[in-house]
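PT: before anyone asks, these are the final sequences, not the draft ones from last week. 663 residues across everything. Please model them as a single complex and drop the result in this thread when it's through.
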Amino acid sequence: MISKTFKILNPTGFHVRPTKTFVQTANKYPCKINVMNKGKKVNGKSSLSMLTLGIGAQDEVTLETDGEREEEAMEALGQLLTQVHE
Amino acid sequence: MKQSIKGTGASPGLAIAKAYLIKPEEAYTPVQSKVDQPESEAARFQDAVRQAQADLQQIRASTEHKLGADKAEIFEGHLMILEDPDLIDAILEQIRDNAVNAEYALYETSQSFIEMLSQMDDELLRERAVDIKDVTGRIMRHLRGTQQADLSLLTEECIIVAEDLTPSDTAQLNLGAVRGFVTVIGSRTSHSAIMARSLDIPAIVGAGPELRHIRPGTLLVIDASEGILLVDPTSEELAEYREKKTRYDRRKAELARWVNRQTASRDDRRVELVANIGKLEDVQKALDNGAEGIGLFRTEFLYMGRKELPSEEEQFGSYKFVLEKMAGKPVVIRTLDIGGDKELPYLDLPKESNPFLGQRALRLCLERPELFRTQLRALLRASRFGNMKIMFPMIAVLEELLEAKRILEEEKRKLVAEGQTVAERIEVGMMIEVPAAAVSADLFAKEVDFFSIGTNDLIQYMMAADRMNETVSYLYQPCHPSILRMIRMVIVAGRQQGKWVGMCGEMAGDETAIPLLLGLGLHEFSMSAGSILPARELISRLSQEQWSAFAEQAMTLTSQEDILTFVRTHTQGGHQA
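LR: through. Structure below.
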């Protein structure tokens, strides 16, 4: 398992659209993906659970990937977390 | 029951038609029961999900066909909910492990998500609870074999009256018949409100429980710009609103024709109409309103409402986003304009007794170069993604401009040395808002590529009158001869050295000022997006040459009042001089 922390730069936080892109990407990987924010941990392949994290701008979000292609998933998803979306 | 009900205008326009009531679905709370064959219960649930999927795919396709791909995106989100492992798998697990009925498992699990999201601080996230209700309600109907009124089958002209409209309800409205809608709950950011704007039908949301007393078939009038719903209007009211509606619809159709046209005067002089924006969402609105570029991108939104300075990365992302979205059209980005009435608590700036005359905008940036350099680096790095121009605010003396340019050059060299790509040529300009810079514009013109006149501040500095102070706000007179003369000086100074001159204050979008500004030779008019189409239509009716003479004449009048009368006299009657 690997784990890394990212700071959300998107000025409006991590809303519906970024979440959608994130979850779609997460579902391409066979490994387990967990996302943590403010002490809460959810399944990164579920958009509903991701939304309940209420990720805002400047939040520090920890990403855990575990299993097949975990490194690859970490890189792709980490990039989505720090990117600026519409 | 004649009455008038206030609500929030969610989508502009007027509508007059009879009420069509959508009864809220009967509240249904399933009772938990044991099932003998959990596996077939699970299969029954999966069937319902598949049927819901088929519905939504069809709704998405028809929305895409009617409104385009980006409006259909919301239903892609709905389809994702139908595949969400934490929802669907959790329900299946509950059915299999506890041998409960599908209705109960669905209700339990979806309710927990709805509750979690309804309690979020963020309004946009709370709105997502509506999506889950919409989608899970659809699965539930398939499980129970119940039907919902099919809004695509409405054929008689009507105004829909409902508690709330789900996104899928709204997308299915038969636009051949539905003239508008009103809802009991909702706000400008609700899905129903957003959909109404994209469907381009008038709508009022959040009109409150009084709506529940409206009887089917009652005549209704929606005036969305006023947020007013008239129930059973009198014949005088009806006549008045019919006329208002005709005028509104005619004007709207007229303006729509101007979206994709160039801006040119009657004698075919080209000018540019561009938009002022203050956040990323404004870009789309600018494009929808036919903006030929962005004339003022205020970057303060990146800095405000937070606890620390935005990083270079964050700024870079935002600038790149706007540049790419504008796809090669010019984008003038103004460096940080903080101070005055805009404060940043985390900068810990000393209190000033006169902040409008204090250390604001570029003055602050030169004092705190680390803050300035971060922004410049982000701008320079973003420059290769579009047609970016950099503009410095609040310059009073030439040294300030030269110092700002020197720092910009320095950062550019550093970036290039680091191997970053920076656009070959980036226009650099300044705002003209301090009278000292305006009168000596010719001395500045050699050092810039353009000027943009910031009238809001220029007027208050010239008149020595705070425009927020009501006792002196009468001095805020954009069309006063002193202001017009000053504007002329700046335009002439710029043009003599081949530099373009724009304006980004409210005056640039003012229909009385536009003829004068056109006459004075202003090249770029930057305004709020909503003013662009009326301005384009207006300019097409004006002769630049004639207004050049009129403007000279106007400046010999002694008061703004006389000048306004003069302008009106010469613009009235449609095809005027």
